[in-house]
Structures are given as structure tokens and as C-alpha cells.
Amino acid sequence: xxxxxxxxxDLLRTVTTVAAGLRDAGIRFALTGGCAVYAxxxxxxxxxxDVLVRECDADExxxxxxxxxxxxxxxxxxWLTKVYDGxxxxxxxxxxxxxxxxxxxxxxxxxxxxxxSVVPVQSATEVMIGKLLCLGPHRGDLNEPMHTxxxxxxxxxWPVVLAExxxxxxxxxxxxxxxxxxxxxxxIEVGRKTG
Length: 195
Description:
Blueprint: H1 3-24, E1 30-32, H2 33-39, E2 49-52, H3 58-66, E3 71-72, E4 80-85, E5 88-93, H4 103-107, E6 110-114, E7 117-121, H5 124-133, H6 143-152, H7 158-164, H8 169-180, H9 187-194
Parallel strand pairs: 2-5
Antiparallel strand pairs: 1-2, 3-4, 4-5, 6-7
Helix pairs in contact: 5-6, 5-7, 7-9
């Protein structure tokens, strides 16, 4: 087994542990980020496990995961909390990009197989929106969102992405580049579908 495969296997075990812990505690959740991209057919991820939870459930989620042998690590940010499964980071996001995780957000997620577990997974459209809203003056690398766009382009509702990211010049620049590369429809085509 390669080192990369071992890391992937460890992440999938962490996903299973997180899912079991949150389910047993009755906490609604969904995978987002790189694990959601992987679940939807994208490339393997070697990064952390990103999980959406409602803010009202965040403390209980940490407690549930600590009771499964993880350790809490309070973050400096006020929109997520963190736990570690060994060396593997689990981000529990309750207000990513200043957008609160609500029941409606979790209702739009769908169950998918991730490793040995079936877990709720955020839609490709909402994962793409999240990645684009992270872009800014201190985070301008377009490679990661472009990999996501290439991998999931058929699953992404581009008119929704355009509408939800219209206030971000960085997202608009990304969408223009993605269209020029043939990864996404042009903004004009997308605009026609929304108009």
C-alpha cells in the first residue's frame, strides 16, 4: 500500500468514526469539502475531514466525538470548531463563509457511500459555491476549485453558482477562467438560464 493510499484509508476511517459518533448523539451533519468531492467521484483527498453541523449542535458534536476518543482543539475562528482523530483534523463547520448551517442546508444533502459508511453529502453545487466564496485577496489560488469544477462539472448547477457568488469578484474571475477552459459554461450562457 502506498503512503497516499494509507492516508486516504485513515481519512475514510475517520469519516466512519465521525458519522457513527454524530449519529449516535442524534446530531444532524453532512460531509463537505474534499471528502464531499471524493464521495461525488472527484479525486482522493489527503486533507482534513470537513463536516457541516448546526451551530446549536457544535458543542454537543465535539463532546460526542471526544467520547469516541478524539480530542478537542478550539480554533481561533468563530465559525467552526475542531477535533482530532489521532493526527487527522476534523473541522466542524457551522457558519462557513458567514452562511449558517441550517436544517434547510442539511435537507439538501444526500446520502452517499463514503468508504464503508453511507453519510449525508453536500451537493456538488453547494461545495463549488463554498470553494468560490473562500477566494479572496489572501486566498487566490484557483487550482483547488478548478480541480473540483473539472471533477464535478456535470453535477454542478452553474446558474445557481453564478447567482450565489455574484458579489465576489474572485468567484466571477474563476467562472470566467473556467468557461474559457471549457470546464463551465460562459457567464452569458449561465445568465440566460437564470434570466
